[in-house]
Amino acid sequence: IRYYLEMGFDYILYTDIDVLFTNLNKRLDEFIVDGFDLIGVNECKDRVMTNEVIRSGFMMFRNSPGTYKLLDAWAYMFSAFENIENPEQSALEQLVQQDEFKDQVMLHSWTSFHSYDTCSGGEAAFSMHFPGAYKVERVARIVAWFEMSDYGIFKERPLTQLLGIGPSMADLSR
């Protein structure tokens, strides 16, 4: 992240590898909020409930002195959590609660910025995350749903054809 910020980009979007950009009618800059160094997303849990904790797998970093300070502190805190599952997430959760950083962080709703395929209500979000197992099947199911839905984001070039995946109707009913 620091490497790309030092190249002079105004913002850097960091995502986990298992993210699909699903709403191509939205622009990334629509989610920039002036005055915040770290723009993230809260978490959908239990299908429709929200957990007001930043997620480390989808964040936008502003090129600012505050962001560099936050990145340094995050790297330092990481060692305290390195022996647990998801150390980067645990360190970030602790960091953004500190007085020094909490006013630098802005969270968008998972229903608009970054949803999960396991949650209901995020179909119009900018992107969708596929954590856990069976990713290919889950991506195929979501893409097929989008191709048949009013959202129609893949109608011109169906992604299922591009990826060589085509779920059956039985797959879609799962």
Strand content: 15-25%
Mean pLDDT: 81
Shape: globular
Distance between the termini: 38 Å
What radius of gyration results from the CA coordinates?
17 Å
Oligomer: single chain
Q: Got a strand count? A: 9
Roughly what percent helix? 25-40%
**Sequence of strands across the biggest β-sheet:** 1-6-3-7
Structural class: alpha/beta
Q: Largest sheet at a glance?
A: 4 strands, mixed
Give a concise summary.
This protein is an alpha/beta fold and 174 residues long.
How would you characterize the overall build of this protein?
This protein is of the alpha/beta class. 33% of the residues lie in helices and 19% in strands. It has a 4-stranded mixed β-sheet, with no helix packed on it. A 3-stranded mixed β-sheet has the order 2-9-8, with no helix packed on it. It is globular. The chain starts with a helix and ends with a helix. The C terminus is likely disordered.
